Amino acid sequence: MAKVSPNILVVDDDVVILKFIEFTLKGLGYQTTLAKNGKEAIDQAKSQHFDLIISDLYMPLMDGNELVRRLRQTPEYQHTPFIFLSGNNEEDTWIKNLNDGADDFITKPIKQKIFISKIKSHLKKAYLRKDILDCARKDDISFEKGNLIYCANRIKPFPLPRKHLKTNITAVYSDSDFFMALQDTNTWGIIIDDKANWAISILDKITEIVSNHIPINILVSDADDMDKLENLMQSKISGFLFKNLNPKLIIHQINSNVQREHDLKSKYLSALNSAAKRSPIRFENEFQDTIQDYNIQILHQPYDKLPGGDYYEIIDVDQNRKILILGDVMGKKWDAWFFVPAYIAYIRSTINFFVNRQELDFVESPGKFLDIINEYLFKDIQLTEVFTTLSIISLCTSSNKISIASAGALRPFLYDGIDKTISQLNIVGTLLGVVKEIKYRSLVHEFNKGDKLFFYTDGYTEAVNDRTGEMIGDEAMFYILDNNKEKEIIEPKDVELELTKIYNVSKFDDDRTLLLIQRN
Q1: pLDDT at residue 279 above 60?
Q2: Where on the chain is 4-aspartylphosphate found, per UniProt (predicted)?
Q3: Residue 2 CB: number of other CB atoms within 10 A?
Q4: Which in 155, 174, 331, 476 has the greatest CB count within 10 A?
Q5: Are 423 and 386 in contact (CB under 8 A)?
Q6: Where are the domains of the chain?
Q7: Residue 224: predicted pLDDT
Q8: What pTM does this model have?
Q9: What one-character-per-residue DSSP string does 163-216 give?
């Protein structure tokens, strides 16, 4: 079957720009749908599926920031590439756009070559994400953890026999319930009752989203209604189930479909994990190191146990010096992990080149290293499509100094062993690759006995308290450190365990890494 061309939603209140973009995209063979404001875009997104969204920032009725926030709250558009168009070149505006959920931005006036390059790049990454994650949605693919989604008629649902099914089945009665169920668990298949008009009306959207990775079967009331069957066969469905069959035959057919999907996904997931294990970029989940009376501990937990965007590196300079790096490529699982080796390669080669050269003293000025690496990344069109945070920590035991530079990372906490106080260090900086020429600041700190440095990625702060429904934030990290500050050595695993208990966190929805530096 020929691959359907990408469907792109373009949102702008300027008709001239809409037509220019439509002309450009159609020249690439892409389908386009146009909207003049955010409200029109929301309506379009409800009725059909889009592979990428391009939106102006400033529009009447609903601006681009509200549009991206609302779309990101919709399960089927949580990971769809979203690109802003704007004549605003201010760095704070760009960062706000990214924080609201955008993936990239293109400045006006539009330069066609750059525009086309960015669109192709984001589509390519989106298809990579879709192909991999749809086939390996969960690392635990047991029948008990999997799920069948049954799109039913709310008033009179057909009673599917559940007793002898190999897996769980979830009945849904609206499009919002369906897309939520699709995100929650590994899905073995979708069954749609032909009397569930709400599902039949968006059948094309459903098939586009799940592509060929999740089988869709239509539960048919009248096997002799050939006009209806032929119309349904125009969609990319896998087959039919007939209500007039013996319930045992319906069960057998459903179980056979589930078993086939289980076998295919088991083989695919095994191949992916095998590839990851052979990668030169492998991080231990727990790492511990010492240098003189300094203790270094790291807890690294990828999202859903699959490689993700968090990365760290420990570089031994000599018997008195170490360089530690901690970063986070935006994204989850494989879509972020694809870019980690490239970032690590840049960082390793740059550090190795400058570490013993007089023009760059890592102990005093790790910020200069960030200046250099940022300039390299900005020039690399492949990597500047994805953004990363990075903290550089230089540790020198001969001078008992620790110096820190940050590119968009969360501010670490410092426990002062003499004053018995905790403070959040004021070390911030722009994400790598966003602005070409920028100067990163270095913070140099005398590190005394009893001092503790507490670094962490946003997989912790963005975890949700099950009781309140709110993210736990930096305050939770401060509280846990304050609770344990008198311990000679704080164990990262104890920090995470205490965090989950006190703040009612049942799961983490992103990669997470803790880095603790303590002097005894």
Answers
A1: no
A2: 56
A3: 4
A4: 331
A5: no
A6: 7-136, 147-276, 286-519
A7: 87
A8: 0.51
A9: TT-SSEEEEE-SHHHHHHHHHHS-EEEEEEETT-HHHHTTHHHHHHHHTTTS-E
The pair of three-digit structure tokens given for residue 392, joined into one six-digit string: 């550089």
Helix, strand, coil percentages, rounded to 5, for the chain: 40, 25, 40
Q: What was the pLDDT predicted at 138?
A: 42
Structure tokens given for 137: 């949605």
DSSP state of 464: B
CB 182, CB 210: distance < 8 Å = yes
E strand or H helix at 519: strand 512-519
- DSSP string covering 481-494, please? HHHHTTSSS--HHH
Residue 115 CA, chain-centre distance (Å), reads 23
Quote the Cα angle for 409-412-415, to 5°: 175
Helix axes 112-135, 247-277, angle to 10 degrees: 120
Bridge-based pairing state of the strands 104-107 and 82-86: parallel
Fold of 7-136: Rossmann fold (3.40.50)
Helix axis angle, 340-354 to 366-379, nearest 10°: 130
For 286-519, CATH number out of 3.40.50.300, 3.60.40.10, 3.60.110.10, 3.40.50.1980 equals: 3.60.40.10
Domains 147-276 and 286-519 fall in the same CATH topology: no
Most confident of 93-97, 174-178, 357-361: 174-178
pLDDT for position 507: 86
Quick check: 320 and 292 in contact, CB under 8 A? Answer: yes
CB–CB of 337/282 below 8 Å?
A: no
Helix (H, G, I), strand (E, B) or coil at 220: strand
Beta bridge partners of 218: 192, 240
CA dist 192 and 236 (Å) reads 13
Q: Which two tokens stand for residue 73?
A: 């709250």
Tell the residue number behind the tokens 């670490």, with chain if given: 412
CATH of domain 147-276: 3.40.50.2300
The helix-helix angle for 64-72 and 38-47 (nearest 10°) equals 30
Q: State residue 379's pLDDT score.
A: 66
- Token pair 């013996």 in the structure block, residue: 246
Q: Are strands 216-220 and 239-242 parallel, antiparallel or unpaired?
A: parallel
Q: Is the per-residue pLDDT at 491 higher than 90?
A: yes
- Provide the token pair at 416: 């002062």
- For residue 432, the 8-state DSSP code is B
Q: What is the pLDDT of residue 373?
A: 81
Q: How many CA atoms lie within 13 A of 112 on its CB side?
A: 9
- On whether the CB atoms of residues 439 and 375 are closer than 8 A, the answer is no
Q: Tens of pLDDT along 124-147?
A: 777 766 654 554 444 445 555 578
